[in-house]
Amino acid sequence: MEIKYIERPFEVKAVQENGVFEGFGSIFGNVDLDNDIVAPGAFTESLAQWKASGRLPPILWQHRSGEPIGPYLEMQEQAAGLWVKGQLLVDDVQRAREARALMKAKAVNGLSIGYAVREDSYDRVTGVRTLKKVDLWEVSIVTFPANPSAQISSVKSAIDAIQTVREAEEFLRDAGLSKAQAAAFIGRFKSLSGQRESGDELGDLVASIVKFTEPTTNS
């Protein structure tokens, strides 16, 4: 079963000291970068199944299944989309405390859903696929600044600090890539293993990361 993701910026209206936050994990009627659009009612059956099980999807950090940082307290479809209310476990989980700090500073302001398609339709004229029913697996907090220029400023110091391939992979994972995606990104630089990682090869890798983090613009 293929798991896909839809990311969108969201405004953190309030992140309480106890880690409670809310936002929209998915917006109806919005075409994403993969030309997918979520239809109202797409989450109805999946949410009913979750609630029948006595729990809701977890809050993950950057789609990492090994880094849950709290539970969702409420999820419901509203007119705008999938509204969620979550509780970061700031008293017990270090990553949850870091997430709260980043969200309050608006350095991290994205939610992304992980889902599997159950029912869809495809418009051959527009190339848009409409997701009618999905199985909701998780809703992650991800790095997705609403302001692309701010993204460049916020990541520049982190990129400049990269001194090893391992640090480069960690940066890419913090930027929202899975472990496999980050490994694939730097796969072309595997020859660095066992070599001095401060030369031209590492410089090429860092340059590639800079290009990866640059926003795309439409003229």
UniProtKB/TrEMBL annotation:
GO terms for molecular function: peptidase activity. The keyword Nucleotide-binding does not apply. Keywords: Hydrolase, Protease, Viral release from host cell. The keyword Hydrolase applies. GO terms for biological process: proteolysis. Residues 10-162 form the Prohead serine protease domain. InterPro entries: Peptidase_S78_dom, Prohead_protease. Pfam families: Peptidase_S78. This is HK97 family phage prohead protease. It comes from Massilia agilis.
